[in-house]
Structure formats: C-alpha cells, structure tokens
Amino acid sequence: MTDAAITKTVFLEASRETVWHFLTDRDKLAMWFHRADQDLRDGEDYALLGKTDDGADMKLCWGTVLEMDRPSRLVCSFTVQPLNGAMTTVTWTLDEVGDGTRLTLQHTGLAEVDAPFSLMMALDAGWDEHFGALRKAMKPQ
C-alpha cells in the first residue's frame, strides 16, 4: 500500500489557543476524545483511557508527545490495541482562518505497520466521530 495516511480537516469557531487546550488538556480531551492520564507534555508518554466492564481503567490508545509548538503544531506517536503496540504518528496542525481555526489531523505510518484496510477504515470513521464530538464540545453553552 503506497499511501495509507488519513487526513482530516475541521473548521472551529475558536482561537488556536482554545483549540490547543482541547488537544492537550486532560479535562478538555475527555470532553471529545478520551480521558487522558495527564495533560500532554512535550517528550512525555501519554495514555488515553476507557473503562472495563468492572470499572477498571484500560488504555485505549497511547504513545509519546514528540513535538509541541504551541499553538500551531502537535505531533504524537500513537497506537491502539489492534496495532499490537506498533506505533503510528498523529500530527495536528492549527491554522488561523478568519475568526477561527482550521484544525488538520494527519495520521501516518499505517502502511509501515502493515495495518489492514479494515483497521484504516475503522480509524478513519473514528476520527470523523471524534471531530464531530470536538465541534459539539466547543460550542458555546
């Protein structure tokens, strides 16, 4: 497979700084993605958590923050259970557009870990779902 990158773009009615907090602050991440074990910090490992049926924490996705250029770019290694620990890369780019922010996600490295097409389709649909939840979480109350 030659090009297995997933690229998504969403326009948000918020400043880049506000969007940055939704990408890096554990409480804001929980509002639209998954609960994080801590705020994301440059060079540090992170885990995004869910609950098992008995209420115990379980890692849904995890990796390391590889680069933080606040508030314009965030790069993380990223894996999920079906990848069996193989790491991919998620890059978030925040651009000022009009009175808001264009947020672009690029999820790369899927071909390198030999991810099956069905997994890429599931990740693609998952990012769509999370972007919808992000829009909803950022709406003024």
UniProtKB/TrEMBL annotation:
CDD domains documented for this protein: SRPBCC_CalC_Aha1-like (cd07814)
Domain Activator of Hsp90 ATPase homologue 1/2-like C-terminal per the UniProt entry, residue ranges: 14-138
Domain of life: Bacteria
Family from the record: Belongs to the AHA1 family.
Full protein name: SRPBCC domain-containing protein
Organism for this UniProt entry: Hoeflea poritis
Native organism taxonomy: Bacteria, Pseudomonadati, Pseudomonadota, Alphaproteobacteria, Hyphomicrobiales
